# Entry
Amino acid sequence: MTSPSLPRPGAGWILDELASAGRENLDESHVRRYDGKEDADAPGEIALLRDVGLDADARLIEFGSGTGQLTVAAASACAEVIAVDVSPAMLSALETKITALDLSNVTVVNGGFLTYEHAGDPVQFVYSRFALHHLPDFWKAVALRRIRGLMAPGGVLRLWDVVYSFDLADTETALEAWCASGGDEIDGEWSREELEEHVRDEHSTFTWLLESMIERSGFSIENASYTEDKIFAKYVARAV
# Structure
């Protein structure tokens, strides 16, 4: 297994991932609303992972597991799921699901991209959805290299995030259109205020920057898809 690159957990110069997690993800009221606001399309994602090799013997790490929509679905599709998140509120919601479903093959870890320490053999799959954007670009690159260090050659990274594919010249138009798509209420939908907060306070980046980071971290991008509004991107990348 390739050794994860720096930083070492506990290094004094490491980014505080909890402080960068986003206000809403630490808010218990937001966490209670989350599954009603956001559908992770877990069945579709599990089907995609199976198409690229996920089977009953595989181990999967999910970074930014949140309330665990993907984690609990993956538990029935593979041997072990390791769910990693920095938010105690999110992990509490996930642990409630694990108990209710009596899942015995899910390990919950309070940690992040930069601090998770892996024990045992390399994993075949790493999954992350709407989590990497909490890190500034320098730390995204470090996180991706650390992820590569957890995987054997041929392992699959599935990454889905807010990643901008519009031209620089279209920034104002594209972001204003996205924010305008938000509603007035925070229950059952994403509000304009929440979308503006994402753009202003979080660290979504351009596809041409992120894709270079992915490849420089030791992955080959096998599939990249972008939404019509050029706000979201999905990747399947293979560890080389």
Notes: The CA atoms of residues 113 and 174 lie 29 Å apart. The longest helix spans residues 88-101.
